[in-house]
Design a protein that fits this description.
CATH superfamily: lambda repressor-like DNA-binding domains
Oligomer: single chain
Structural class: mainly alpha
Number of helices: 5
Shape: globular
Number of strands: 0
Order of helices and strands: HHHHH
Largest sheet: none
Number of domains: 1
Distance between the termini: 26 Å
Strand content: under 5%
Radius of gyration: 11 Å
Helix content: 55-70%
């Protein structure tokens, strides 16, 4: 999961600081998420999926389909 989060960030040429600002957390905390040093809270995981326009299942390696699920 952590590699996917890092790859999505790098694909957009964003820094950890930029993503952290979007998530309202520090760069250090975001770095811990990306390295897998701490578990990512569900609310942060949802924000990451929305930001990267993908599903939480993709971030969690439960699917290889990047497209988000359709809204109801």
């Amino acid at each position: 999961m952590y590699e996917r989060i890092r790859n999505l960030r790098e694909d957009k040429d964003l820094t950890q600081t930029q993503i952290a600002a979007h998530l309202n957390c520090s760069q250090r905390i975001y770095s811990n998420y990306e390295r897998g040093d701490v578990d990512i809270p569900t609310t942060i995981l949802i924000k990451l999926a929305d930001f990267h326009n993908t599903s939480t299942d993709y971030l969690l390696n439960r699917t290889n389909v990047k497209k988000p699920y359709p809204s109801d």
